[in-house]
Design a protein that fits this description.
The complex is a heterodimer of chains A (132) and B (386).
Chain A: H1 3-8, H2 10-15, E1 17-21, E2 27-28, E3 43-47, E4 51-60, E5 73-80, E6 85-90, E7 103-113, E8 120-128
Chain B: E1 4-11, H1 22-37, E2 44-48, H2 52-56, H3 61-68, E3 75-79, H4 85-98, E4 104-111, H5 118-125, H6 141-156, H7 165-174, H8 188-192, E5 196-199, E6 201-202, E7 212-220, E8 232-241, H9 256-269, E9 278-280, H10 286-295, H11 304-311, H12 326-330, H13 334-350, E10 364-371, E11 376-384
The chains are: A mainly beta (132), B alpha/beta (386).
Chain lengths: 132, 386
């Protein structure tokens, strides 16, 4: 059970909230307390739009316990338009159609259920761009 | 800094050791290394281990192993750096002895990964990655390496089957290592039809989950005459780090942790890549062998496979790799692996491996242990003492 973790990360999982350094303008996702570029601790919240391109992808056949029931599923690295790369699952696309360079957008989907009696946990996944 | 040497070696076979627990594996390797060195006690013990808490419900390994090894009252602590835990423990011993704080330190890397189902261990191994942003997205540890391999294939236009050169070589060598888990050859055809774990990584790209323990005794080089073991000099044992999460790296195909670690190690040892006679590379996955050869300065970027093909990575080649079978053929008991690598390299330098895999006229060896997807990298350079 990791409800506190999910509650704590809700702005990241639902709204792609990272940080913008007020001294050098560097954008971070996940949010960091220290700017990796200029080491400043002077930050404001920054919300990424959630559009990007596929940097790499994989389809997982042997999954960790918690994700075993949905295997095979696809996970990738996505280069967001703002210049930050994140890790996310893909949805609404067959594995064989995924390609490096494909345009994708963020949607909210179920990530996993925390056991039969636990909460259903949601967060970002990415799908091929269908909205214009 | 005092010069530091390895004066004793010990290892258990890498297996699914259902009959042995962590402490018995660890104590066996440690006492074997102490017997090899000819010592009945040490000033301290460094235990390299990653998953004793998750998979054996046992932490506090330092005092546990000291207690069961019959070293009552000796200082012992566990060192953790994911799959780099073993060499990280050696690094701590080198610091302790090099600084003069201690004269003789036992290092034991120990791991048990077969207590639970493979899926449970897969989840535990994924704790090497970023729990909030990688693992909870469903990414397995194999998956992280698969992302690297996919991008590598895309950027450098290799055929996936070109990677078979590394596991085929590892298995060719592990046949002659009695402590290796897999003692049979594999073919290109078997590689090509091997099942996917996380596409494009297949089963024969992947080192197996296993149990085992390996140990070395580290002493001051000025004291080697006090021991009966055959000494090997540690010229360098240096650490480089990088971001924990793969997605936070601007250029994931360049392992900056490797570059940082080897730069320091080459400088301290006063050697260049061409001086290295053989290399115990961290072949947890075939792609990591390629990326390590490049960031370590052996091959140009994107050229690791061509380099391996050209120079020869077999026993008689220009740069023999994984002479004891590597992680792929020997098996990968994660927190023990870094110590197994150094034990193998030291045995090669001592001239104590099977004649089929003994490299003639070897003098300088390098072993590299990688934690996570390259977030902690420890490069050890060893030399014969003539």
């Amino acid at each position: 059970m990791d409800i506190p973790r999910y509650w704590r990360l809700k702005d990241q999982r639902y709204r792609l909230q990272g940080k913008k350094c007020l001294d050098c303008g560097n954008l971070s996702f996940p949010p960091r307390l220290v700017c990796p570029k200029c080491k400043s601790r002077n930050y404001e919240k920054y919300f990424f739009i959630g559009k990007g391109t596929v940097y790499s992808h994989t389809t997982i056949y042997q999954a960790p316990d918690r994700f075993d029931h949905i295997a095979p599923y696809s996970v990738g690295l996505i280069d967001l338009e703002e210049g930050v790369r994140i890790t996310a699952q893909f949805t609404d696309v067959p594995a064989e159609e995924l390609k490096i360079g494909m345009k994708v957008e963020m949607v909210i989907r179920q990530i996993y259920e925390d056991g039969p009696k636990g909460p259903i946990l949601y967060g970002y996944k990415f799908r091929p761009v269908i909205s214009v | 800094m005092r010069k530091v040497a390895i004066i004793g070696l010990g290892q258990t076979p890498v297996r699914e050791h259902w009959e042995s627990n962590l402490r018995d594996l660890g104590v066996t390797a440690l006492r074997d290394a102490m017997d090899d060195a000819g010592v009945d006690t040490v000033d301290g013990v460094c235990v390299g281990n990653m998953l004793s808490g998750a998979l054996s419900e046992q932490e506090h390994l330092g005092s546990l192993i000291v207690d069961y090894a019959g070293l009552d009252g000796v200082e012992g602590m566990k060192i953790e750096a994911a799959c780099g835990s073993g060499a990280a423990a050696i690094r701590m011993a080198v610091k302790a002895v090099g600084s003069g704080l201690m004269d003789t330190v036992g290092v034991v890397g120990v791991e048990k990964l077969t207590e639970y189902s493979g899926k449970f261990s897969t989840a535990a191994l994924a704790t090497a990655a970023d729990a909030d942003y990688e693992t909870t997205m469903g990414l397995s540890f194999v998956g992280i390496n698969a992302l690297l391999m996919r991008r590598y294939l895309y950027e450098y236009k290799y055929d996936k089957n070109d990677f078979s050169i590394f596991p085929i070589n590892a298995h060719k060598n592990s046949i002659h290592n009695p402590n290796a888990m897999f003692r049979y050859e594999i073919s290109e055809a078997q590689y090509a039809k091997s099942k996917h774990i996380a596409e494009p990584i297949n089963l024969l790209d992947s080192s197996p989950i296993a149990d085992g323990a390996a140990a070395v005794i580290v002493c001051a080089q000025e004291n080697i005459s006090q021991f009966k073991g055959k000494p090997i000099s540690i010229l360098a044992c240096e650490v480089g780090t990088d971001t924990l999460a793969l997605d936070n790296r601007e250029d994931p195909l360049w392992l900056k942790g490797v570059e940082r670690s080897v730069k320091k190690a080459y400088y301290l040892a006063d050697v260049k890549p061409k001086d290295i006679d053989f290399f115990e590379v961290h072949d947890a996955f075939s792609i990591i062998t390629a990326l390590s050869l490049e960031a370590s300065g052996f091959a140009e970027r994107g050229e690791a496979i061509k380099f391996a093909d050209k120079i020869g990575i077999g026993i008689k080649g220009g740069l023999p790799l994984t002479t004891g079978g590597g992680l792929k053929g020997r098996g990968h008991p994660v927190g023990a692996t870094g110590v197994y690598q150094v034990v193998e390299a030291a045995k090669q330098l001592r001239g104590e491996v099977a004649k089929e895999v003994q490299i003639e006229n070897n003098n300088i060896a390098m072993a590299q242990n990688i934690g996570g997807s390259g977030a902690t990298v420890i490069t050890t350079i060893l030399k014969r003492i003539v």
